[in-house]
Batch of 2 targets.
Target 1
Amino acid sequence: MQLRTNVNSLKGEIYVPGDKSISHRAVMFGAIAEGTTHITNFLTGEDCLSTIDCFRKMGVRIEQNDTEVIVEGKGIAGLSEPTEVLNVGNSGTTTRLLLGILAACPFHACLIGDDSIAKRPMDRVTKPLRQMGAHIDGRMNGRYTPLAIRGGALQPIEYVSPVASAQVKSALLLAGLHADGTTTVTEPHKSRDHTERMLKAFGADVHVDGLTVSVTGKQRLHAADIYVPGDISSAAFFLVAGAIVPNSEITLKNVGVNPTRTGILDVLAQMGANVSIENIRNEESEPLADITVRTSELKATEIGGELIPRLIDEIPIIALLATQAEGTTIIKDASELKVKETDRIATVVSELRKLGADIEATDDGMIIRGKTKLRANHAVVDSFGDHRIGMMLAIAACVTEGEVTLQRPEAIAVSYPSFFAHLHALQQG
Ligand SMILES: O=C(O)C1=C[C@@H](OP(=O)(O)O)[C@@H](O)[C@H](O)C1
Ligand SMILES: C=C(OP(=O)(O)O)C(=O)O
């Protein structure tokens, strides 16, 4: 696909699609709850459709009409043994959270995904789930898909996770809901807390104490109505675009601003971006706001430590932002990037270099020197099948002089099917 380069201005108002993390959870929790769950502003990205497909294969009735979803929950005991393999597609969240649910189900299920999923470590959940009593087998002793699981009676666990991962935390809490006692998970830094918030909305007893979360076992969930806020990880592409493209002003409406997800806003502020956040509402469950960004003079910054889990999926687009900031930006403590849809340290560095960026990989992040005028002489860049790399490159092209072709742009539909429609609308604005 030929990308639009050297864009003069981006102007307008965008409603980014629903949050991916929250959409997955709404379907999963709805499926194992008792009663009918109504979901609005659901993300129709491929990852969330994989989650729906897996639960339908276990006998759950799910009606999906664009962004409206109705889940006929049957309770955990109402799931049935799938006659087909469960295909998680490209979705790490589906794989890991589903394993947590299946650990409590007394039947056999097989999980497969695409080539990217087959490279991502699943032992971070299969090991503790085995300790709780689930029978799991798979390639490389259960490290990689394909995986087979037979769940059943579970013991609780007190788990100290080596990584700040909401997927690990959520998988163990979901298993813990059905164990015989109290399960606790402690993480090194706080990861996104959508599971904790949504379990409460489904009537569960969840206790949060700093970095430790606990659930008592043998709990039942009760159906809830869930409104999914706009995904800040999708908004991030236009927050950066608005800051770096000349003559721009973009308002992003109804964006989720849960504090465990707003690291990107902290970084934009540190770098001097012209961003205003208005109309913050709904703070009890999942807070929302309208965010406006205007073209900005940017300065370099350092990003690491507890900030990393609060912006982990935004690092590719933050790397682009740093190429347009004066000075040296250092991103560290981010080795988790190596086990995402691609090794995002390697793919960000290789593809931005093709556009002339001064960027180098380190063991746990990258170093970016700015400000660089990006230029391309018929460059061919590649998403490598990673949606966030694809979107980052489309925004990079907006500030590049020359011609840029993007390979495998279709990956973007994993989390933001209307991305190019929104980008074009802002170019007309
Ligand atoms: O729980 C979630 O919904 C997610 C958690 C994060 O992964 P990790 O748990 O691996 O950090 C994030 O990168 C992913 O996009 C979604
Ligand atoms: C890492 C991501 O998702 P997942 O782990 O669900 O594949 C992402 O969306 O950037």
Target 2
Amino acid sequence: MELNVAHLNLSFQGLKVLSDVNFSLHSGSVYCLMGPSGSGKTSFFKILLGILEADSGLIEAPSDLKIVAVFQEDRLCEEFSPIENLTMTVPGHSKELQKRAREVLLNLLPRESLTRPVSTLSGGMKRRVAIGRALWVPSDVIVMDEPFTGLDHETKKNVMSYIKECTKDKLVIISTHQSEDASLLNGTLISLS
Ligand SMILES: Nc1ncnc2c1ncn2[C@@H]1O[C@H](COP(=O)(O)OP(=O)(O)OP(=O)(O)O)[C@@H](O)[C@H]1O
């Protein structure tokens, strides 16, 4: 699957945010979207997700593409546990469903944290629940907006390795301010400036 971004332009009240942005992305690859604060990374994700309309240009992709996002905010249900935050995305409450959610989350978080309300978790733990949920939901494309905020270096490397393991045939786009992330992820750098 190929996703083509062509001549994308976006302004807010006269402030040019995206200026003739062009690139092509392919399934089976990880892309790291980099650029200074305010360069339009989140805005690009919003256009891709259909939340925001570009002024001109287009993103060509199959119409039935399933895109899943980790937003800059965790957007978790705080009173529910990490396991429940995953299982609530699909119908049913079977033990099998809970077992599968636990298996995903055990790759990212300590066992004891999986059944506590999300409100009692640290910021970095919440971030990992949000990442786990994005990996759990079936998708063709995963966009992650600064997913590694609050993670120490070692934890970040473990999380990256699990992301790569789970997304081998998907298209993954990750925005980051850390230039080392592209090489740690073995990803392709896309610069917005
Ligand atoms: N709804 C909006 N109305 C007006 N201006 C906006 C709106 N959304 C974003 N902007 C502006 O667009 C520019 C790009 O914002 P965006 O959040 O896309 O940048 P970013 O690269 O993701 O930044 P960061 O790295 O800080 O998250 C900023 O100057 C921001 O203030």
